[in-house]
Specification:
This protein is α+β, with helices and mostly antiparallel strands. Helix content is 22%, strand content 37%. It folds into three domains: 124 residues, Sandwich (Immunoglobulin-like), CATH 2.60.40.10; 91 residues, Immunoglobulin-like, CATH 2.60.40; 350 residues, TIM Barrel, CATH 3.20.20. It is built from twelve helices and 35 strands. Helix 8 packs parallel to helix 9, helix 9 packs parallel to helix 11 and helix 11 runs antiparallel to helix 12. The termini are far apart. The relative contact order is 0.09.
Length: 608
């Protein structure tokens, strides 16, 4: 009888084992040798402006950071990953207990020779700076396919921006070095693609600095494909490689807005607006307006199916300000679903809370923010109920960019809307509007979307609408330069209360100037004009400017400049609110700027 019971018990246990799989990885046993090579572990601690900005909801802070693990299949067979293990705990532990906001693998099965990446968005102290990080990637046989052990530290070498040019086979890779030692960069490679040339400027660094590589590929990248760059770094006798990634889409600089109606489309074009939130088709195409299509949460599959591949489609707009009420893992699932439905256009997300940028910005192809500094509702605490320092929008743009690199970011810059926090004037003055725009551009915005253009409000405040159009001319002239340039830590000497944000490309330095000598005011911020403004900026080794110009709403105007010992000195007669300067290596570029400005003026008179 006892033997019969034991036999029955064995059958029950065997049946249970067949019906229910044990917890993944529960045995912790190793049953195969490593098949994947860990190439690089990128770490970026979550950081945002905390001293100058205090958000209303700030009790729970992100104490973690982003961990991107790059690995290559070194075998002759595909490797299928099952789960990962961090510091002895499996995937489920980190996700279900909310230590990770989300994770994302681009390939669960890795082909022989293929390189890919695992993204981990950690929000707890387990993923904080200087914390131990022991990773195991486990394959379908529950063998350890790869393992790595390190300490989470930010690399002083960062790929700040990967630009994809329209031909989809030319890249510009901006590299930022924040360390003190000397180093050099070698030829960049692109896993999965053949590189034909890699042309560097600034590849030899004596200390902190900036460098840019132009990389040519043998064939165009497939839209939406995973684009990785491998950057060789030599420091003394030490050699290593730094990796970065994004999805492959040609970058463009929109001048956009949210609202467009049949009776305002011609006006939008006269303001140099070319993009708005809309379904493609209809009168918008007559005016050459392109569309950002809102897909929502959950993703509206019918909308995606209807407009996929439409030539007027710019991007898929996942959601507006989900960082108020929708968890980041939900947004990741929406982004994933959209990527599966369409590979022709990038995904886009608008965020509003800098304390949450690190959890949301890495999800989409184009992160965006919409913080305004006057008369609008705010997620931050203001010194006055109607406004704050105009520089707040710059701090939000900087924080968004930090969380998003190496992708470019767009910004909703304050325009014309029916806000009510400042009753005496419910929209920004022309100066307040211009300053916020220039601050956003100076912190690295690769696209500007005005929020908003409300017809009735614009009729009440025609000076604000005029300012949008006038600064639209400036963006028309410089949009390609802003796409090509990246913010750089160039030493600058400037008068007190003059903010200077330098950006550098392969052939220009752009200087975004803002007069911060103003007062917060219930009707219009008054500026104290600066006169005889003298600036000195250290130039990168490859920039030898032959001319300096101001690119203004009234035209491209020459500026007095002298060059000595690698520094450019510039004098402006006056600075009232803001200005943008361009220091160019080739005088022909000034001619092109002047021609584009004249074209912008002509387009304002165009009859559709």
């Amino acid at each position: 009888m006892r033997n019969a019971l034991m036999c029955l018990l064995s059958l029950i246990i065997a049946g249970a084992a067949a019906a229910q799989t044990a917890q993944v990885g529960a045995s912790r046993t190793v049953r195969s040798s490593e098949k994947l090579k860990i190439e690089y572990v990128h770490y970026r601690p979550a950081e945002w402006e905390k001293e100058k900005i205090v958000e209303f909801e700030n009790e729970i802070e992100n104490r973690g950071g982003l961990v991107y693990v790059y690995y290559t299949n070194t075998t002759e067979k595909p490797v299928s990953l099952y789960f990962y293990r961090i510091n002895g705990q499996d995937t489920s532990y980190w996700l279900l207990n909310h230590f990770l906001a989300w994770d994302r693998e681009y390939h669960s099965t890795i082909a022989p020779g293929q390189t890919t990446v695992l993204e981990l968005n950690g929000t707890t102290a387990d993923f904080g700076p200087d914390k131990p990080f022991e990773l195991q990637l486990v394959d379908r046989a529950e063998g350890i396919a790869a393992k790595a052990e390190t300490t989470l530290k930010k690399d002083p070498v960062q790929v700040a921006y990967i630009r994809v040019l329209p031909d989809m086979q030319t890249l510009e890779v901006h590299v930022r070095h924040e360390g003190k030692g000397a180093l050099s960069y070698g030829p960049i490679t692109v896993p999965g693609a053949e590189v034909t040339t890699c042309d560097w400027v600034g590849a030899e660094q004596k200390g902190p600095g900036h460098a840019i590589a132009r990389v040519s590929l043998a064939a165009p990248l497939a839209p939406a494909s995973l684009l990785m760059v491998r950057l060789p770094v030599t420091e003394g006798r030490d050699e290593r490689a730094v990796f970065a990634h994004r999805r492959a889409f040609a970058d463009e600089f929109p001048i956009g807005t949210w609202t467009g109606r049949d009776d305002t489309l011609a006006t939008l074009r006269r303001l140099h607006i070319d993009t708005f939130v809309n379904h493609p088709g209809g009168d918008a195409e007559k005016y050459g307006l392109r569309s950002m299509v809102h897909t929502g949460v959950p993703v509206n599959a019918d909308t995606v199916k209807k407009f996929s591949g439409h030539p007027s489609l710019v991007c898929w707009m996942l959601q507006d300000e989900p960082d108020w009420s929708i968890a980041p893992n939900i947004m990741l699932h929406c982004d994933t679903a959209l990527r599966q439905m369409d590979s022709t256009r990038p995904t886009f997300i608008t965020l509003c809370r800098n304390i949450k940028f690190f959890e949301y910005a890495p999800i989409s192809d184009i992160p965006c923010q919409d913080h305004y500094s006057v008369t609008a509702p705010s997620s931050s605490k203001w010194p006055k109920f109607y406004g704050t320092r105009l520089e707040e929008t710059a701090w939000y743009t900087r924080d968004l960019k930090t969380a998003s690199e190496p992708k470019g970011v767009w910004v909703w810059s304050q325009g014309i809307h029916g806000w009510g926090e400042r009753p005496k004037r419910t929209v920004p003055t022309p100066e307040e509007l211009a300053v916020q725009l220039v601050l956003n551009l100076g912190r690295g915005a690769k696209g500007i979307l005005w929020f908003n253009h409300d017809k009735k409000v614009a009729e009440k405040y025609p000076d604000a609408e005029e300012a949008m159009g006038r600064w639209g001319r400036v963006m028309r002239v410089l949009r390609e330069d802003f796409l090509a340039a990246e913010k750089a830590a160039l030493p600058v000497k400037a008068p007190d209360k003059v903010d200077v944000a330098p950006l550098v490309s392969r052939d220009k330095v752009l200087l975004c100037l803002v007069n911060t000598d103003y007062e917060i005011h219930p009707e219009a911020y008054p500026f104290q004009e600066k006169t005889n403004v003298r600036l000195t900026v250290d130039l990168p080794s490859w920039i030898q400017p032959v001319k300096a110009v101001r690119v203004t709403p009234d035209g491209v105007k020459p500026v007095e400049m002298s060059i000595a010992k690698g520094k450019a000195s510039i004098t402006l007669e006056r600075l009232y609110d803001c200005d943008i300067l361009a220091l160019v290596n080739d005088e022909a570029d000034v001619t092109s700027m002047e021609a584009e400005y004249q074209q912008a003026l002509a387009d304002e008179q165009k009859v559709y």
